[in-house]
Design brief:
With 430 residues, the chain is mainly α. Helices cover 75% and strands 0% of the residues. It is built from 16 helices and no strands. Helix 14 packs across helix 15. The longest helix has 32 residues. The protein starts with 35 loop residues before the first helix and ends in an 8-residue tail after the last helix.
Length: 430
């Protein structure tokens, strides 16, 4: 049974993957695009991510157009973030209990309908207070969606195909991050933020139609007196907490995310405004996106047998832009550092998703993924709230440089776990 190995053996042997589930049987270990189900999933993700990449820009300018208030924009954003994080663990239980394609279809449909409401309110120039319940609902659907996305790749690919599938999805994700905001800016400037949100709503509804075509095999019928949702959630926590190779990485990213989101997202624009300007900051952000896209494309072909040592070691470089930001370097050097940060971050993301899909039992993937995201997301608001206070006390430059140094060390700390260093991929096929 998963999660029952003796505690004293966990750090000596790399984790093993359970037998492949029925839903993964018969899939080729090479070329996930040969699978019709994966093609429908990839298409749905491309459409959904394209719309979602437009939403932040459109929502920001739509709210500011009505109120010209950063406080209301923060309230609307927080109204979605808090329910999303709060719903992650429940979403993990649901995605492991029911067919993941069905979960994605329903949550995409729900998210699309909430965005229809948001678009309608923005087009009618209603006060942002009316957006709060819709934002909360949208956050709930996001929280239910993320764990299903973490688990479904193992239903669509096996062996080397796992990394190829993750890399293809990452390429789509990074391409939309580059193109989506630009498209949203053009739409918002020409016809208004409400119409850009309407495009996002349509993208969710189209994605739901794509996910409905995936047709994954049905799960075995549940017998009367079988495990309850509560017991399955406890099982997910038990597995997650018993695997140092998983929770060590999660804790490292809890520290990294709090520092990175606080310094980069809060202090970054402020420091840039006084140094490299808005144009320079936009170039830096684009350079990071370009680096991530390049890495995701390369990872379709590149395979590293034991990826976690290089992945975490290189991730320490993702903290360098924070240090350079505090040091006040020019646009070129900051853009170069951001490009490298994009490359190493995406290399880690693909490697980590592949390792988890290879070694975590398929029936537990969504619950374990939910814990991974929940505990690494929870500190983000703390970092965002604490950073301005620390900057006022110690100075922005000191906070940025120190935060970058601590974030770099946090990325190296999990390498002290022997089982993580030994973890291999592609054990279920070449």
């Amino acid at each position: 049974m998963p999660g029952t190995d003796a505690p004293e053996s966990r750090d000596r042997e790399p984790p093993e993957r359970d037998a492949l589930p029925v839903s993964s049987a018969g899939l080729a270990s090479r070329g996930p695009l040969r699978s019709a189900a994966f093609r429908w999933f990839l298409g749905g993700q491309a459409i959904s991510l394209g719309g979602s990449a437009m939403a932040p820009v459109a929502l920001a300018f739509g709210v500011l157009e009505v109120t010209d208030s950063a406080a209301w924009l923060s309230a609307v954003t927080t109204a979605a973030l808090v329910p999303m994080v709060a719903t992650l663990l429940l979403g993990g239980g649901i995605a492991d209990r029911y067919r993941r394609d069905t979960v994605l279809c329903l949550t995409s449909l729900g998210a699309g309908l909430t965005q229809v409401g948001v678009a309608s309110l923005l087009l009618a120039h209603q006060h942002p207070a009316f957006l709060l319940p819709l934002s909360a609902l949208n956050g709930i659907f996001q929280g239910l969606t993320k764990p299903a996305l973490r688990g479904i790749v193992s239903n669509l690919a096996t062996g080397r195909g796992l990394q190829q599938a993750s890399s293809l999805l990452a390429s789509v994700r990074n391409a939309t991050r580059i193109l989506g905001p630009a498209a949203a800016g053009l739409l918002t400037a020409s016809v208004g933020g409400g119409w850009a949100i309407a495009v996002d709503a349509v993208s969710f509804l189209l994605a739901a139609a794509f996910f409905a075509r995936m047709s994954l095999p049905s799960l075995p019928p549940r017998t009367k007196g079988g495990p309850t949702m509560a017991s399955e959630l406890r099982e997910g926590w038990s597995y997650f907490s018993s695997k140092p190779w998983i929770w060590a990485v999660t804790l490292a990213f809890a520290v990294f995310n709090a520092l990175n989101m606080g310094v980069w997202q809060i202090l970054g624009p402020v420091i840039a405004n006084a140094t490299i300007g808005a144009e320079g900051w936009g170039l830096v952000l684009s350079a990071r996106g370009a680096g991530a896209l390049l890495a995701s494309v390369v990872m379709v072909k590149l395979t590293v047998r034991r990826p976690m040592v290089p992945a975490l070691s290189l991730m320490s470089l993702a903290a360098v832009p924070l240090i350079l930001l505090g040091a006040g370097v020019n646009t070129l050097w900051l853009a170069v550092a951001a490009f490298v940060a994009g490359v190493v971050s995406e290399f880690f993301t693909v490697a980590w998703e592949t390792v988890c899909n290879t070694h975590v039992p398929e029936r537990l993937l969504s619950r374990v993924g939910a814990h991974d995201e929940f505990w690494s997301f929870v500190p983000i608001p703390i970092g965002q709230l604490a950073t301005p206070f620390l900057a006022a006390t110690f100075g922005m430059a000191m906070v940025a440089v120190t935060g970058g140094g601590v974030a770099a060390v946090a990325m190296l700390a999990p390498l002290l776990v022997p089982s993580l260093r030994k973890t291999e991929i592609n054990r279920n096929g070449d």
